[in-house]
Amino acid sequence: VLVCLEMIVLSVASTAPQKTVKSMKRINELHRAIGKSGGKRS
Prior knowledge:
It comes from Klebsiella michiganensis. By secondary structure, the chain is an all-alpha fold. Helices cover 79% and strands 0% of the residues. The protein starts with a helix and ends with a helix.
């Protein structure tokens, strides 16, 4: 799942560099939410 997210981020970053920062912030929030709800799964 994380790999897919990274690929999506890279694709978005390559097409819209201006939105990269916002995307990273959203992903960080998602990781925090996942970590709080289901614990840390790596």
